[in-house]
Amino acid sequence: MSDHLHVAEPGKQFRLEHHAPEATPGLSEDEGEALLPELRLRLDELQELLYADRRSAVLVVLQGMDAAGKDGTIRSVFREVGPLGCMVANFGVPTPEEAAHDFLWRYHLQAPARGRIAIFNRSYYESVLVERVHGLVPKSVWKGRYGAINRFEALLAAEGTVVVKFFLHVSKEEQRQRLQERVDNPKKRWKFREGDLDERKLWDDYGAAYEDMVNECSTETAPWHVVPADHKWYRDVVVARALIRRLEALDLRYPEAAPGIVGTIVI
Ligand code: AMP
Ligand code: MG
Questions:
Q1: What CATH number corresponds to the domain at position 126?
Q2: Does any domain span residue 190?
Q3: Residue from 70, 110, 126, 199 whose mutation best tests the ligand 1 pocket (most atoms within 8 A of CB)
Q4: Ligand 1 contacts CB of residue 68 (under 6 A)
Q5: I need a surface site. Which of 7, 78, 161, 197 has the fewest CB within 10 A?
Q6: Contact, 30 vs 87, CB < 8 A?
Q7: pLDDT in tens, 116-162
Q8: Up-side HSE of residue 155: CA atoms within 13 Å toward CB?
Q9: pLDDT at position 1, please?
Q10: Is the pTM of this model over 0.90?
Q11: Is the CB of 63 under 6 A from ligand 1?
């Protein structure tokens, strides 16, 4: 991890156990909470500029275990971003039609047009996570998918889409507390599924799958951010800062006025 954006360096061996989910390096909670409002506003400015510039798109990929905070991150980080050019795509168990296609099909359909941000709440990475852990496809199939994913992301990047990937890394104890809260709190109970407990039993298998995912698919064009996610405020600061950094690197500009569209012409 090179800096406070928690990038998993491409080509460098990544070990999940070396990354503390409760870490908040360099920031206190008060400092983090104080930063968030301005980060959200900056993201809104950049999104409008992205929309006006119309040369690039942004794909935000969110992965993490149940209760890792994918929904909460979207709600918090994108709170100020106007809905005009920003959409969320949720991916659950594939429908029969989706399952009848190649594993990337349903995701490519929802990839962002130039000028837009698309947030993938779960993504094609489930094809090397849940499908691997549950043996839904043979090893020979999921192994081949890492390369297919890297080529897919390279295609998107070459055609103008910035791919920004966040693995929200929570501890098993934090997940326990959050799932229990979903059971106890009537306003959160709708989020709880009994199946979440079966997934929790497979915690270590998922850990291995996430580790391989980062090792195989943290690339120069689309590196993984492994975000310490036990503290929601810290998670949100990291995600917002990483997005702002990538958007600022695009050198976005408002388009020039068309010839003749200057001076007092609206009469
Ligand atoms: P949620 O994110 O709580 O709405 O749950 C979505 C569910 O869909 C999770 O249990 C995922 O494991 C599951 N899911 C997502 N993608 C796939 C996939 N490709 N194959 C099987 N299950 C999936
Ligand atoms: Mg769920």
A1: 3.40.50.300
A2: yes
A3: 126
A4: no
A5: 197
A6: no
A7: 999 999 999 999 999 999 999 999 999 999 999 999 999 999 999 99
A8: 9
A9: 42
A10: yes
A11: no
